[in-house]
Write a structure and sequence with these properties.
By secondary structure, the protein is of the alpha+beta class. The protein contains two helices and two strands, in the order ββαα. It has a domain of 34 residues. Strands 1-2 form a two-stranded antiparallel ribbon.
Length: 92
C-alpha cells in the first residue's frame, strides 16, 4: 500500500497587525473540496493597499503589511493544493 505524500508545511513568520483575529479566513466548498479563502474584510484591506500602491508610495509599514498578506495568500494556496491533492490521491 502506497503511503500518502508528505508535504513540508511552510512556516509563517508573523501575521499582519491588521489581520482580524476572527473571521480572517472563510471556508468554501467547491465540488466537495473545502477551499480556504481570505474573508471579504481581508480582501478589502489588500485591495486598498494595492490601490494606494498604484496611486502613490506605500509607507514602510504598509509595504510590510502587504508582503505579509501575500505570504498568507501563498500559505492558503499551499493548503488548498495539499487538501485537493490528498483528496484526489484517495480517489485513485
Amino acid at each position: 500500500m502506497a503511503s500518502p505524500p508528505i508535504y513540508p508545511f511552510p512556516k509563517l513568520q508573523r501575521l499582519p497587525a491588521t489581520l482580524p483575529i476572527e473571521g480572517a479566513v472563510r471556508l468554501e466548498l467547491q465540488e466537495g473540496v473545502p477551499v480556504f479563502r481570505a474573508s471579504s474584510a481581508v480582501q478589502k484591506r489588500i485591495t486598498a493597499l494595492l490601490h494606494k500602491q498604484q496611486a502613490s508610495e506605500l509607507s514602510a509599514e504598509e509595504a510590510e503589511e502587504l508582503d505579509q498578506y501575500e505570504e498568507i495568500d501563498d500559505y492558503l494556496s499551499f493548503l488548498n493544493r495539499v487538501v485537493r491533492n490528498s483528496l484526489q490521491s484517495q480517489q485513485t
